[in-house]
């Protein structure tokens, strides 16, 4: 009976005696985003670091490197040691009592030059996207530095495509200086269903040196599958076309021509866009040649854009207008949730023979000569009008007697075709047809009194009235006539 009691007591005390002692050794000072070296030590009969779960550590640190389990001597006692390279994910206090670590502190990330804090914020994209749809993962960095750069580590997830945009930076406050740098990590889910993603490491670079590293929190999204009726080559985004040349074409028979198009897809990375090269249709007017294509991808703060610049060469054959040709464009609009199909109509140049080309050239030359003659006639008329009216203006402006006003009337009558020297009443009749809104009764009575009855009338008054008549008749053309006269003199 006593032996059995001793055996039971031994079995109760044996597990604590065999339990391993595990201890985590960290540097005294920890800072968010700065990599540190740590050691995980285990001693005792049950020590087994190789199979020890590191899940408690992963809540606080990202484990960048895991060394091999080594057996070393400490104070003459054999222990197991495993070196770890850790990256603190968050700032604040933490404890790991199971590994003999308590009341430890991770300091906020700070700029090495100024000591000011560095803040980084992450905003997850919308939920329920379509497969292949562009998603924006927002990254915001607050720092005292005006020029920084975030660098994305190489991603190895086969179910996602990622592109990091350039920064959109702005000054938030002057004292102390605080800048906000906004980035967008563009994500494209390749598979439908529940998708989880551990985003890659982001390095914070200042003056080309990575001072801090940050890991965004894991992302989980429910991705909607594309409709089954869509072909595999359908783009999820928005497709548009720009014609580069020609807008209008005139080709001689046998001459080589080329159509250039730029097809642009907004929200589509180049890795997801394999454009079937369009071809011109062979006809009596043209003989198509092999198509050349150049692909380009641009990552901007507003999104990812891919484009194809296409060159469609051809040899012209007969003299005729092309049959209208079109290329089908098809894409899936994620905002509307449906397929969009629209044809692209190609320009239709005219193919002409050599004699038709000479005929067109002759017509162009004749029309050019006719137009030049018309322009010269217009110029001569305008020049005569300018000289006559400016001469009349100067005579009225410097008039010393009634004869000066009559000579001004004669200049106007000659250029307007009213006769060489019409009488006063006849001149006024023609003038009223040009300026029916003018009231000239007072001026007419004054001129008759001065010229025919010999009455004494102030010449200055009549000159001012006639200047007003001319100014109202000419308007802006008075300046134009003066400029035209100067040009003719040159």
Using brief descriptors, characterize the structure shown:
five-stranded antiparallel β-sheet, alpha+beta, Immunoglobulin-like, 4 domains, 28 strands, 490 residues
Tell me briefly what this model is.
The protein has helices at residues 2-18, 55-58, 354-397, 402-416, 424-434, 441-451, 459-474, 477-489, and strands at 21-25, 30-31, 36-43, 61-74, 77-88, 92-96, 101-107, 119-123, 135-143, 149-152, 160-164, 168-173, 178-189, 193-197, 202-206, 209-214, 219-223, 235-236, 238-245, 250-252, 256-266, 286-288, 292-300, 303-316, 320-321, 326-333, 338-345, 350-352. With 490 residues, the protein is of the alpha+beta class. It is built from 8 helices and 28 strands.
Can you offer a commentary on this structure?
This protein folds into 4 domains: 2-107, no CATH class; 119-223, Immunoglobulin-like (Sandwich); 238-295 and 307-352, Immunoglobulin-like; 369-489, no CATH class. 27% of the residues lie in helices and 38% in strands. By secondary structure, it is α+β, with helices and mostly antiparallel strands. Strands 8, 9, 11, 12 and 13 form a 5-stranded antiparallel beta sheet that branches. Strands 19, 21, 22, 23 and 24 form a 5-stranded antiparallel beta sheet that branches. The protein contains 8 helices and 28 strands.
Topology of this structure?
Elements: H1 2-18, E1 21-25, E2 30-31, E3 36-43, H2 55-58, E4 61-74, E5 77-88, E6 92-96, E7 101-107, E8 119-123, E9 135-143, E10 149-152, E11 160-164, E12 168-173, E13 178-189, E14 193-197, E15 202-206, E16 209-214, E17 219-223, E18 235-236, E19 238-245, E20 250-252, E21 256-266, E22 286-288, E23 292-300, E24 303-316, E25 320-321, E26 326-333, E27 338-345, E28 350-352, H3 354-397, H4 402-416, H5 424-434, H6 441-451, H7 459-474, H8 477-489
Parallel strand pairs: 2-7, 18-26, 20-28
Antiparallel strand pairs: 1-3, 3-5, 4-5, 6-7, 8-9, 9-13, 10-15, 11-13, 12-13, 14-17, 15-16, 19-21, 21-24, 22-24, 23-24, 25-28, 26-27
Helix pairs in contact: 3-4, 3-7, 3-8
């Amino acid at each position: 009976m006593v032996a059995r009691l001793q055996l039971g007591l031994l079995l109760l005390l044996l597990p604590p005696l065999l339990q391993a002692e595990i201890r985590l050794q960290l540097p005294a000072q920890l800072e968010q985003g700065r990599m540190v070296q740590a050691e995980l030590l285990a001693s005792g009969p049950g020590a087994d670091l190789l199979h020890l779960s590191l899940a408690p550590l992963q809540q606080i640190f990202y484990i960048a490197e895991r060394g091999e389990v080594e057996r070393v001597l400490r104070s003459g006692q054999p222990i197991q040691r495993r070196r770890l390279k850790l990256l603190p994910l968050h700032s604040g206090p933490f404890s790991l009592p199971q590994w003999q670590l308590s009341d430890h502190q991770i300091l906020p990330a700070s700029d090495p030059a100024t000591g000011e804090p560095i803040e980084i914020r992450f905003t997850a994209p919308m939920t329920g996207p379509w497969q292949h749809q562009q998603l924006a993962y927002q990254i915001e960095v607050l720092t005292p530095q005006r020029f920084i750069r975030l660098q994305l580590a190489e991603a190895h997830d086969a179910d996602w495509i990622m592109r990091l945009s350039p920064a959109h930076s702005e000054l938030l406050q002057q004292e102390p200086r605080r800048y906000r740098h906004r980035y967008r990590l563009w994500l494209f889910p390749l598979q439908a269903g529940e998708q989880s993603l551990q985003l890659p490491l982001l390095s914070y670079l200042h003056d080309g040196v990575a001072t801090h590293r940050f890991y965004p929190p894991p992302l989980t999204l429910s991705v909607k599958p594309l409709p089954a009726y869509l072909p595999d080559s359908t783009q999820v985004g928005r497709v548009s076309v720009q014609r580069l040349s020609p807008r209008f074409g005139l080709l001689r028979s046998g001459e080589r021509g080329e159509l250039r198009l730029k097809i642009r897809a907004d929200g589509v990375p180049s890795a997801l866009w394999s454009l079937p090269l369009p071809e011109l249709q062979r006809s009596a007017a043209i003989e198509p040649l092999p198509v050349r294509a150049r692909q380009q991808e641009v990552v901007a703060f507003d999104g990812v854009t891919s484009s194809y610049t296409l060159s469609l060469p051809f040899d012209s054959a007969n003299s005729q207008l092309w049959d209208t040709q079109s290329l089908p464009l098809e894409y899936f609009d994620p905002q509307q949730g449906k397929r969009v199909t629209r044809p692209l109509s190609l320009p239709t140049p005219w193919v002409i023979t050599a004699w038709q080309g000479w005929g067109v050239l002759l017509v162009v030359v004749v029309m050019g000569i006719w137009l030049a003659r018309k322009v010269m006639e217009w110029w001569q008329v305008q020049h005569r009008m300018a000289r006559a009216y400016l001469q009349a203006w100067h005579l009225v402006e410097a008039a010393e007697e009634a004869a000066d006003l009559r000579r001004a009337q004669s200049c106007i009558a000659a250029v307007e075709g009213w006769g060489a020297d019409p009488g006063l009443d006849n001149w006024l009749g023609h003038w009223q047809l040009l300026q029916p809104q003018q009231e000239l009764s007072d001026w007419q009575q004054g001129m008759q009194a001065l010229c025919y009855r010999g009455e004494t009338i102030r010449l200055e008054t009549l000159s001012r009235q006639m200047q007003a008549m001319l100014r109202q008749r000419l308007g802006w053309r008075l300046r134009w006539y003066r400029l035209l006269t100067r040009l003719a003199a040159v």
